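Technical note accompanying the year-one report. For the benefit of new consortium partners, we illustrate the data format agreed upon in the data management plan: each record pairs a sequence with a structure-token string. No post-processing was applied to the example shown here.
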Amino acid sequence: MEPREDHVDPAVEAGRARFRTLPQRIRLEDTFVSVPASTPSPGRDSFDHDEWLARNAWCGSLL
């Protein structure tokens, strides 16, 4: 028995309706989130004269 051409399966029609259009584009800015790895420490990048002197005196005494 051959299928009738005027009858379309509802599942086939639903698939055609779903895949008839392309998906909307996603902007590059929406693909990632920028989050700092750690909180910035105000004293981390400050220069300490005593620490510098202690590190260089220790390294210099090994020579």
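Partners are asked to follow this layout when depositing records. Residues 10-57 form one domain.
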